[in-house]
Structure formats: C-alpha cells, structure tokens
Design goal:
six-stranded antiparallel barrel, Immunoglobulin-like, single chain, Lipocalin, five-stranded mixed sheet, about 325 residues, about 20% helix, alpha+beta
Length: about 325
C-alpha cells in the first residue's frame, strides 16, 4: 500500500519536469502555432470562396433581376404599312432606352418618351434601367415592311458628280460643320473574347464626304475608334459586350475630331431548370452567354465634333 503513493509521486514529478523542460515547451508551442495558422488559413480560404460566390451571385442577380425586360406593343413580323410601337416595362421607376440601327442600346441611347413609328424595315432594340442602376435583358423585335427597304445605318450623300472645286483655287478651303454625319465602316472584326480596353479599332469612310457640295474626303479614308469597356460572358447565360467610341477621321494631314459611341452585346441565353432523375436541377450556373461580335463591314455613323476647314479632296 505504501508503494503506490510513492510511484504516483514520482510520476507526477517526472511529468512536471518534462512540462517545465524549455525544449519541450518550445516544441509544443510551435506545434500549437502551426495548427492555429493552418486552421486560420482554412477559414480564410473558406471565407474568400464564400465571398466570391456571393459577389458572383449579386452581379448576376443585378443583371437579371434589377429591371424587367421591356415589352413591345406590336409583335415583330412582316407588315404592309407603317406600324406604331409602344414600349412598356413592368419595373417600377425604370427608364427605357432604345435603338433602331442594330446597335445594342445603352444609357446613352435615345430615351423612350412615347410611341415609335416604324415606317421602314427596322430592328428595334430596348433596355430598361432601374432606379438602382441595374440593367435588363435586351428586347429585340424586327419589323419588315413589304416593299420598303431597311432604314440605312448611315445617311447617304448621294452620287458623287464632278468636283465643283476643280475650277477653284487649290488653296481654297470649305467648312465641314460641327454635327455633320460621317458614315463609317469597320475594317476589322471585334470580339469581346479578345478585345481589351484601349484597343484601337480601324474604320474607313463608307462613302465620299461632302461639305458645301465639295468632296473633302474620299471613300476609304481611315478613321479610328477606341474600345472603352469589355465585359466577358458570364454564367447564368449573361452575354459578353463591347463598348467603343469613335475618335477621329484622318484627312491628309488634318485630323477631324469625331464623336459617337455604341455597344454590341452577344446572344443572351435563356437558362431554365432541367429534370434529372425527376429532380429539377438549375443549369443556369453552368451556362455562359455568347461573346459580342462586331463584324468587318458593319456600319456606324459618327458626327463631326467641331467646325473644321478643309481643302477639297484631290
């Protein structure tokens, strides 16, 4: 009976000595610190993943749910005479913007303020922007009028006749007024998959440009635009988009400042739940929208930014 207390006392003394040993204490502390650091790294990774997922869902929800898709009062199709179209949106306080030239509407496009008369073949596109800044899907309707050609994307200046400046002095200059329409054509493809902000886009003059009845720039004169924003396709079917602004037209040694912006959006893919083993499964998170594409040969109309005096073209 007397031996057990002695052994217990010796064991406790040994354990105390081990616990007090500096080397053992340092090792235990290092092990605890490593374990705590590892646990913290796991927590940080989990929080980062959760935060990224929440941000992705918020972005998608903002794009999808902030404003309803506008509705047209007249169904797209073929008509024998002009039609009057009203645009409505179910979102409270939403503002509608639209285009009729084939470009994707933005907040810089024409604001809808009343019925639109379609008197030639036209692609009508509209978006709604909520009071919180969120944008709807793009609504598109093509109205084909029998016997009526499509609305030209760029104003036509008419056939070019003899240059009236031929008999004038070679040093004479004519005024290219501010606001003059400048029809342009894209000289290369642009795609939201490869485009980056700041990229330069080559364009050319679509037809001879006149001022005061005088040709001052010939068809094919180079112009340039700049990519101002690029959005890649996202999950939930969100499409890619490219925004650009036209910079200038280069006529001989003169640079004519231009103004004009537009955007192009890819196909917006509707996503729905599908049945898998009798259980509805949302496929939306796995479906991406299409990239935006501006094809070579697409037309766009810019405008002269300031009065400019130019000599007649040679």
């Amino acid at each position: 009976m007397g031996t057990f207390p002695i052994l217990l006392t010796l064991a406790l003394d040994a354990a105390s000595a081990i616990a007090q040993d500096p080397g053992i204490q340092a090792a235990q502390q290092a092990t605890q610190a490593a374990q705590q650091a590892n646990d913290q790294a796991i927590r940080d990774a989990q929080l980062a993943t959760q935060s990224a997922h929440q941000q992705s869902m918020q972005n998608t929800q903002c794009y999808r749910c902030s404003a309803a898709t506008p509705k047209f009062s007249v169904k797209p199709g073929t008509y024998s005479s002009a039609v009057t179209v009203k645009i409505r949106d179910a979102s409270r306080g939403a503002v509608i913007y639209y285009t009729t030239d084939g470009w994707t509407p933005t907040a810089a496009s024409t604001r809808y303020t009343g019925p639109i008369t379609i008197d030639s073949t036209t692609s009508l596109q509209a978006i709604a922007i909520s009071p919180y800044g969120g944008r709807s899907r793009v609504a598109t309707a093509v109205y084909t009028l029998n016997g009526v050609p499509p609305t030209p994307a760029a104003p036509q200046s008419g056939p070019v006749g003899p240059n009236p400046a031929a008999a004038a002095s070679a040093s004479a200059k004519v005024l290219l007024a501010k606001g003059t329409a400048v029809p342009l054509v894209f000289a290369s493809d642009v795609n939201s998959k490869t485009a980056d902000v700041g990229d330069k886009i080559p364009l050319t003059l679509a037809q001879d440009l006149k001022a005061e009845g005088v040709v001052i720039a010939k068809r094919g004169t180079p112009s340039v635009a700049t990519v101002t924003e690029v959005d890649r396709p996202q999950m939930m079917g969100v499409p890619g988009e490219v925004f650009f602004q036209v910079d200038d037209l280069q006529v001989g040694g003169t640079v004519i400042k231009l103004r004009g912006t537009a955007a192009k959006e890819g196909a917006d893919i509707e996503v729905k739940a599908v049945a898998l083993m009798a259980v509805p499964v949302p496929v939306a998170p796995f479906v991406h929208g299409k990239n935006a594409e501006i094809k070579r040969g697409a037309t766009f109309t810019a405008f002269v930014d300031a009065d400019t005096f130019l000599p007649p073209a040679d």
